[in-house]
Amino acid sequence: MKIGIVCYPTYGGSGVVATELGKSLATRGHEIHFICYAVPTKLNKFLDNIYFHEVELYQYPLFEFPIYTDALASRIIDVARFNKLDIIHVHYAIPHATSAILARTILNNKIKVITTLHGTDITLVGLEPSFTPVVRFGIEASDGVTAVSRYLRETTISTYNINREIEVIPNFVDTEIFKPGENLELRKKIAPKGEKILIHVSNFRKVKRVQDVVKVFEIVRKKIPSKLVFVGDGPERGDAENLCRQLNICDDVLFLGKQDALHEILCSADVFILPSQIESFGLSALEAMSCGLPVIATNVGGLPEVVLHGETGYLTEIGNIERMASYVIELFEDKNKYREFSEKARERAEKFFDKDLIVPKYEMFYEKILNQ
Fold first, then answer.
1. Which strand (E) or helix (H) includes residue 297?
2. What is the pLDDT of residue 169?
3. Do both 268 and 147 map to the same domain?
4. What percent of the chain has pLDDT over 90?
């Protein structure tokens, strides 16, 4: 198949999943065309069967803001015509679905549009009154729609009064890359005295509640010598850094910013902390589990579909700092339980979320839509 993939190229779950999906499909013989305003962060080397098409934004004094939706639609039309694409697979409903549907109309319906819903396009941005009708239209008018969790599917149907089928295809992980294997050199640099290491990975948006990670760590370090590692960047990073200064724990907290070698960093840590206010799936938690890290997270959204409470980690109520900290301490003090959780976390990632299990589901979905 010839597949166009539209996604945001930034450091975030939807862009990462879209890029990894395209790369996996290319290795399976499909011709993949990425259509974005910049090269996706994970598309950092030459790969056979993969092409990139930049969306160029026209600047004109009359337009106060660049008209991205129209520019994207025009680029989709050009790429689809010239390369004879079969499918346009858009990730994130706003504005990608609208642009793809406009392009399909201009192309006289000679291409199929598949929309994958990832989370905040439904639970946050799409709830803005100015966007809600457009999001609903994009979902209803697509030829096929998928969601990354059962939670997101049900939320979409109930919130937007959707009357069509939405197929659940979960996010996936490459278990050959994200696999257990202690990174002793990095671990020694982070924790030279053999301290335990907690880690959090996110885009540092408000819903991630990164200050809660700091508060959990402060409790843990009072009982067990520990270090805290943050990976990623975003608007809440400054507040998290200020809180570390207020608590006088800066010497034990490391902010690494955005990193490509995430699996190497995860393999240097012991426990993954994710105290989010909402998560439609929790890709970072899955990547940590695949590396054998137990996950301490909130019992929200799609996280219970990924993290099994009492088996691969623990789930708590939003904002329950003390409970999260007690779970971390419990795992650090009970080596047998920690080992059991670590093994089950890896096992669950391999058994249910490995890319070789999930990518064929997308292929079957493509075939289903093409044959309608």
1. strand 295-298
2. 97
3. no
4. 80
